Amino acid sequence: MVMTLDKVKENQKVKVISISGGWGVRQRLGCLGIQPGDMITIKRSAIMQGPILIKIHGNQVALGRGVAGRVLVEAM
Amino acid sequence: MKIALMGQPNSGKSTIFNHVAGYKAVTSNFPGKTVKYEISKFKFLDQVIELVDLPGTYSLTSFDLAELEARKYLLNNKIDVVVNVLDASLLSRSLELTLQLLELKLPMVVCLNMIDEAERKGIRIDIEKLSKILGVPVVPAVAVKGKGVKELFSVTNQIGKEKKSGKVLKFSKDVEDIIIQLSAQIEKKEPDQKFNIPIRFLALKYLENDNFFIEDLEVSGKKIFEKVKHYQNLLKESHGRHSDVVISSERHHLSMSIYESVVLLGKPHKSPIDYLDNVLMHPFLGYISMGLIFYLFFNLVFSVGKMVEEPLLDYFYRLIPLVEKSINPGTLSFSIISGIIQGLAGGIAIVLPYLFPFLLGLAILEDLGYLPRIAFLLDAFLHKIGLHGKAIIPFILGYGCTVPAIMATRILESERDRFIASVLATMIPCAARMTIIFALVAFYISPQAALAVYILNIIVIIISGKVLSSLLPEVTPGMILEIPAYHIPSIKVALAKTWLRMKEFIFVAWPLLVIGSTVLSLLKYYEADLIINQFFSPITMLLGLPIVVGTTLVFGILRKELSMLMLIQAIGTNNVISVMSATQIMTFTIFIIFYIPCVATIAVLWKEIGSRRTLFTIAFTFVVAIVLGTITRFVY
Fold it and tell me: How many secondary structure helices (H) and strands (E) does chain B include?
């Protein structure tokens, strides 16, 4: 199932398909190891449309909802 | 020999720097705390080494001002050796910057910092193999404990003498072909380029569409610009992705394959600290614990401060009658000496007792890694005032001192966010203003009243944020923030950091305090204070404050705590409540918190956001202070 990262439930593991959005977002996420093909586990989803917390390559990263909405993923 | 520490945010560059330079650079457990570089000279073996601690950067493509500063320094200065500091527990991601640094063909050493943390996570690294692949020496270290730092500098020293750079690792063949073709074009058309960097590096930056390098080409309409676009399109067509994504995925895969070939994964050892997030980042418990932590922090600072303040003040005020006995009251020298004693008494007895526990507590929270968690919890709320979660970091630092808080706004990506965050940061009661809140409001009225001042302050900041962001309705770029693992704070480092921050108070504020006290004594002696008080009487009358308060407002612009200490001198007693009513104390405090930033803050604002916006900030805070002060007078 394909969806954007902000829609994924807690503790689910997904694979990055692509990142939409401009050069800045692509590069910034790429630097943190979020690139097509990478595996992400969603650890937490904050209340009130707050950010999500993901685990990627052994590291924790917080992404605002808007940013997470640009990452297209596939549920594993 | 010039050595630059370069690495991703939070990899421990400043910790290594402090280990050899003494505690000079503030370290904390959050990514992006170093926003400007720091230089220190020291002697190692027979060499004088100039060590530069650069802000952390995820890649050589820069996004925020701090990263830009690191890259600019690296490209514009002649550096003998680059020490690339890596967080060994995040090896695969960290290697991506390493690969880019290798492309620069500078003499380099890799430092695998936090190797103990990596082992705890079950990551065992074959150091020799890694060194062979990269073609540079690799030194493991645990910088917090000082382990491996000496070895690191002796290897660095050696490499600096040999001027040996590492290997440039190649990408897959089709991509590499395009790089070679573009490089050939650059060589033909741009023989003397602006930066002294290898052609291959430049070709990669062009293919990555890095604005910093491409801008010039576009403006001057050079032929090479068309070539660059042509090769970017070739990559895009053959890979079905933007050319910048193609290049970064090449590096990404290269890093991962190096990682896989040098790492032996074992079983991670969980420690109790890993479970802390189950509470501290919990959608419900997280907020409760945050409130609890700050409430306890507040109470601790107040009770420690009060316990020490009272006996110290008594002691100092026993000195004044002694002076009276030996020098004739009413003479000029008596005014000056008693002024100086009052100034010093204020500095030592009123300010230090609150400042020390506050700064120590802040240092412990920072080193633990709690600040990024607050950014996570409050992101949604900060969106309501047009900012995102990362803005909380300058705000929290603002409770310590406004100057580093404004510097820290550099971690925000957009200029608008930096402006709004800077204005709001000036309104946060810094440690100097905290001593006023504690020593006046909490001491003479009640601790609850002091807490109310803090809550009111937050409400005013929220409203101001809403107003400012509605004036500048641009959308904030959204938060992308690494949440680092917790570290158990080292008490030695926390104390060193507290001392570094207190030094500023002792060496800048105390001399000013003594001078200020002397000036005030002189003014009083020659009755010149009456003129100043007269000048400020419209403000003091509007706020319903004693007219003698006027002079103290001027001193408050120099340093905020001066206004309170001068107040004690101006009204002629340390028992403020005998001269001013609770309402007047409250009004004075509220006014002082908001009105006009101190000189040091104005200077840094001027540099960071420009003259026009600084003047706006001064006017804005002044109006807020007048309005709130007047309301307090009639309502409280």
Answer: 31, 9
Token pair for B202: 């430049």
Distance from CA of B297 to the nearest CA of A (A): 25
CA nearest B205: which of B243, B168, B258, B171? B243
The structural architecture, per CATH, of the domain B2-162 is: 3-Layer(aba) Sandwich (3.40)
Question: Which backbone phi and psi does B535 adopt, to 5 degrees?
Answer: -60, -40
CA distance B7 to B84: 5
Note whether A12 contacts B: Cβ–Cβ < 8 A. Answer: no
Residue A71 sits at the chain B interface (C-beta within 8 Å): no
- Tens digits of per-residue pLDDT, B264-304? 999 988 888 888 999 999 989 999 999 999 999 988 988 89
A59-63 and A71-75: which strand pairing? unpaired
Candidates A24, A33, A58; nearest CB to B63: A24
State the helix-helix crossing angle for B149-162 and B13-21, rounded to 10 degrees.
90
Residues of chain B with CATH 3.40.50.300: 2-162
Domains of chain A, CATH where assigned: 2-75 (2.30.30.90)
Which residue of chain B has the CA closest to A63? B480
Taken in order B230, B231, B236, B242, the sign of the CA dihedral is negative
Q: Please write the tens of the pLDDT for every residue from B440-493.
A: 999 899 999 999 999 999 999 999 999 999 998 888 788 999 999 998 898 999
Alpha-carbon distance B636 to B631, whole Å? Answer: 8
Give yes or no for A59 touching B (CB within 8 A).
yes
Contact yes or no for B306/B440 (Cβ under 8 A): no
**pTM of the shown model:** 0.89
- B484 interface with A at CB cutoff 8 Å: yes
ipTM of the complex: 0.94
